[in-house]
Design goal:
The protein is of the alpha/beta class. 28% of the residues lie in helices and 25% in strands.
Length: 262
């Protein structure tokens, strides 16, 4: 779905997704009857990709701080007939309450909206007070009794807060698969480091992989690689952490997605 008055939407329509690998992985991992949680949904790229692929057989909970973007998500889902997408206007964090959030001015890119913005880009954003909820509370309200098979978190440096507020059983060896952005610069603005993200996924319970996004000049094309304990995170501006639960309940799913890592 392309909105001609939204520059980010037009760019996406003209150039295609930069997250093809991650979307293909999720489509292979998920199964009919599953639930997918998209925290930091923005224009709904992941939400729509999952919903369209499964034709209503996977429930999608899309969480996005910007009320304007949630309206666009609702409109897109209506026009595309995707009744299984639920979009909620909320910032995701470690506790319940309100949070200062910077939303883009009209005509500016929305992809970097967050709780903290770079000083060089501050003029493109307007400060708002928005509701903040935990993933645990939202899951209890909207997904009670449902199996959460996959979670994507892209909240511009606040990923550690979102992870702190998630249900503990999502991090078990039989829990969910995760796609979590690691952006060292955005994390630093929030007072965090990359390890504040990946320590939530212990090696005994998860396979941990990272995928560099837009590798720097002179670096090889992006390919997923095993996360190392001494990973420097210096060959790309940001990364996606892929954490696959290592328990026996996910054996068939891991076998199905193995081709993405070879």
């Amino acid at each position: 779905m392309c909105f001609p008055d939204w520059p980010d939407s037009v760019w996406q329509y003209l150039h295609g997704s930069d997250d093809r690998w991650e979307i293909a992985l999720l489509r292979s991992w998920l199964e009919p009857g599953d639930v997918f949680v998209d925290a930091g949904a923005n224009m709904g790229l992941y939400a729509h990709a999952v919903a369209s692929h499964f034709g209503g057989d996977v429930r999608v909970l899309a969480l996005e701080a910007s009320p304007a973007l949630v309206e666009r998500l609702h409109e897109s889902a209506r026009l595309l007939g995707e009744r299984e997408i639920s979009a909620i206007p909320v910032a995701v964090g470690a506790e319940e309450g309100q949070v200062t959030f910077y939303l883009a001015r009209a005509g500016a890119t929305t992809v970097s909206q967050s709780m903290r913005v770079d000083a060089t880009e501050a003029a493109d954003y307007v400060e708002h007070l928005l509701p903040m909820r935990t993933l645990a509370a939202l899951a209890g309200e909207h997904l009670a009794g449902r199996s959460i098979a996959a979670v994507k978190v892209d909240v511009e440096g606040a990923e550690p807060l979102a992870l702190r507020g998630a249900p503990r059983h999502w991090f078990s060896s039989d829990g969910a698969a995760w796609v979590v952005e690691i952006n060292p610069s955005a994390l630093a603005r929030m007072g965090f480091r990359p390890e504040d993200v990946f320590t939530h996924f212990p090696g005994g319970s998860f396979e941990q992989w990272i995928l560099p996004k837009y590798p720097k000049i002179g670096q090889p094309p992006p390919r997923p690689r095993r996360l190392k304990t001494d990973e420097r995170f210096d060959d790309a501006p940001f990364y996606n952490l892929i954490a696959l639960p290592a328990g026996r309940a996910a054996d068939a799913r891991r076998t199905r997605v193995r081709r993405f890592f070879t």
